Amino acid sequence: MSAIDTSPGLDFPPGVTAAIPAAKTVIAAVIEWRGRIALLRRSSRLGHEGGLWHCVTGFLEPGATPEQQALEELFEETGVQAKDLLDLRPGPALVITDSIGGPWLVHTFTAVTSRRRLTINWEHDRYRWTPAPKVKRFSNRVAWLDSVLHATGHLAPAMPAPAGLQLQDRENSG
Q1: What are the start-end ranges of the E strands in 23-102?
Q2: Is residue 79 within 8 Å of residue 47, measured between CB atoms?
Q3: Which of 27, 118, 123, 164 could cross-link with 78 by S-S, CB 3.0 to 4.6 Å?
Q4: What confidence score (pLDDT) does residue 100 get?
C-alpha cells in the first residue's frame, strides 16, 4: 500500500481527495500513553484483517467531523473517553491505496491518554503498549499502519542510504 500525505503545502494530485467516495473515508487514531503507543489486534472473528495489529479506526459517519468520529471510535473500541485525554492532535490526512489500487482518505490523530488500561470491544482480542520504534517487531500488522505512524510522527520516515555508499557497496560486492 502506498500513501499520499494531503497536508497543506505538500504536492499531491489535484482533486484526489474529492474523487474518494464518502464510503472510503476513515479515521485512524494512535493512542499514546507515557511515550508508548497501543497496538490493537483485530479479532479473528472479523473477516477483514483479522489477527492483524493496527490502531483505532472507523468510518467517518455522515454529519460527523473527523475529530468527533475519532472520539467516538476511541470510546467504542477502547473505552477511552474525552475526559481521559490529555491531548487529541490531528495529523495530516492521507490517501492510502488498498490491495486493488482503490484510494481511501484517512484522517489521522494522536490521542494522548492518562489511562493505561483499555477496555477493548469485540473487534479486538488483545492490545499491547509498545515504544513506537519497536512496532516493526509486530510483523503481522496491517500494511497501512506504518503510513499512519509516519504521518502522526511516531515513526521517522525511512532514510535512503547515501548514493556514494550504495555505489561503494555494489563495487565491493563482487
Answers
A1: 25-33, 36-42, 53-54, 56-59, 85-97
A2: no
A3: 118
A4: 87
pLDDT value, residue 170? 34
- The cell for 120 is 477493548
- Unique residue bearing C-alpha cell 555508499: 165
The three cell numbers locating residue 95: 490517501
Helix (H, G, I), strand (E, B) or coil at 104: strand
| Pair 62, 24: CB distance under 8 Å | no
* Block residue for cell numbers 490502531: 55
| Residues of the chain predicted below pLDDT 70 | 1-18, 158-174
Q: Is 94 in contact with 147 (CB distance < 8 Å)?
A: yes
DSSP 116-154: ------TTEEEEEEEEGGGGGG--SB-TTHHHHHHHTTS
Per-residue pLDDT at 43:
93
Task: Please say whether the beta carbons of 72 and 64 come within 8 A.
Answer: yes
> Smallest Cα–Cα separation from 38: which of 136, 127, 141, 120?
127
Which set of grid coordinates corresponds to residue 78?
A: 477502547
